[in-house]
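Anyone? Bumping this.
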Amino acid sequence: MNLSLYLWQRGTAALMAPMVIVHLVVIFYAARHGLTAADILGRVRGSLGWGSFYALFVAAASIHAGIGIRNVLSEWSPLAERTAGIAAAAFALVLFGLGLRAVAAVTLP
Amino acid sequence: MAGVPTEVQAEPKPSELKVSLWRGTDEGRYQDYAVPQRQNQTVLDVVTYVQRHLDPTLAYRFACRVGMCGSCAMTVNGRPRWTCRTHVAKVAADGRLEIGPLENLPVVKDLATDMSRFFEHWQQAKGTFAPTKTRDDPIEPIRPDSAMRIAASAAIECINCGVCYAACDTVRWNPDYLGPAALNRAWTLVNDCRDGAVPERLQAVAARGGCHACHTHQSCQAHCPTALNPTASIAGLKRRTVQAWLTGEITR
């Protein structure tokens, strides 16, 4: 890992820390108020705020996890660092795609 | 009194240590020796006994015997230690010692490792002081209570024994990683106001294999025989390199 990757990983971690708290608060709120799936979809569908929030979260998580996976692969697998980087980037892209698909499924009108 | 049998108290046999020493290079095996146990006996005393009385072909390295030169570190019962300051009573309560070469370094022979990579990394981290004055200039006044001097003092007493390098998981997994000792040295120089190569040094430790590769496992701190905390020094370098990047002192 170099300074550039370090900044991306710590930066995304700093971004995700408050977002995880918001996410957990939302889960507790939904559970305590007995919101059904239909209730939740009724609130988040078409919401630019929730869509942007979770799209940003997915982007940060994909970058953060991608860098972590790159470290794991380069340190624990026989892959060369460049190959590990390519594999980790592919993993991050898949994560980003799947995450955005899930966000779109519940927030697009 | 005549006719009364006298009981002769047999001199107790000195107890023996069961010692296994690594013999060979990277390929080899542990060989067992019996070494008399003495009071105030160090692990280096044990190795020296074997070499002088049992097997003169045993190779190991030592110099000062008082914990200053950093040349006698070995793996003792699974942990890297400075052998000249490690008492047998402390590490071998059951009378058994297994002594091998330091890990994460190639073995020259038996208990002696090749420290070249360790010191190459030290140089890569620009661990050499870069003077900014000549002998004709006045001596730089440095306040002992200045923040930089306090930071440097906390890390300065490294003897380069290689114990932290042998204990470090990241060194084991990443051959490019500079290691705790080299980065700790860099941190002392970054905090030396007389040094003239701070940007170059920060650039060197911010590169691939530098301070950002550290996983903060803190094995270096746990094993350092002089009770230094290289993890804290590396954390300092992480912060300082980010500051240097933000101010344009170094590039990514």
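Late reply, but here is one note on the structure posted above: Chain A touches chain B through ten residues (CB under 8 Å).
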